[in-house]
C-alpha cells in the first residue's frame, strides 16, 4: 500500500474516532502533497511524499521554538502531538552514531578534506538517508567531521 493510501485510511480512522488533531494534521499533509502535485503536474511517489512530510515536521519544529519563547503551552502540546503523528509516517530515524558512520563513509568516498567539500558531502549523504534524519543534524555532524 502506498503512503498516500495509508494517509487516506488513517484520515478515515481519525474521522471515525473523532481525533481532531490527527485528522487536521493528515489533512494538512495531504493538501501539501496535492498542492505540489498540481503545481508540478505530476503524481508524487512515496519518496517524494516522505520529503513533504519531513518538511512539515521541520516547519512544526521551528514553530515549536517560537511558541516556547512566547510561553504558549497550549500550542506547544498540540504541536508536539502533530510532530509525533507525522513521525509515524517517516522512516525510522537514524541515531547519531548511525549518522556518523554514514557521514564518515561518504567523506571517504568523495575524498572530502575540508569545509570546501561540504556541499559534495551533504548532497551524497542526503541521497543515502532521505527522510531518516534532519538535515540540520547532518550538517552539524558534517561540519564537525570536516573541521577536525
Write the layout of secondary structure elements.
Blueprint: H1 3-16, H2 20-40, H3 46-69, H4 73-87, H5 96-109, H6 118-129, H7 135-147
Protein name: GatB/YqeY domain-containing protein
GO molecular function, one term: carbon-nitrogen ligase activity, with glutamine as amido-N-donor
InterPro entries: Asn/Gln_tRNA_amidoTrase-B-like, GatB_Yqey_C_2, YqeY/Aim41, YqeY/Aim41_N
Written description of the protein model:
This is GatB/YqeY domain-containing protein. Pfam families: YqeY. One of its GO terms (molecular function) is carbon-nitrogen ligase activity, with glutamine as amido-N-donor. It comes from Natranaerovirga pectinivora. InterPro entries: Asn/Gln_tRNA_amidoTrase-B-like, GatB_Yqey_C_2, YqeY/Aim41, YqeY/Aim41_N. By secondary structure, the protein is mainly alpha-helical. The protein folds into 2 domains: 3-87, Hypothetical Protein Yqey, Chain: A, domain1, CATH 1.10.1510; 96-147, Orthogonal Bundle (Arc Repressor Mutant, subunit A), CATH 1.10.10. It has 7 helices and no strands. The protein has helices spanning 3-16, 20-40, 46-69, 73-87, 96-109, 118-129, 135-147. The longest helix is centred in the middle third of the chain and has 24 residues, at 46-69. The N and C termini lie far apart (45 Å).
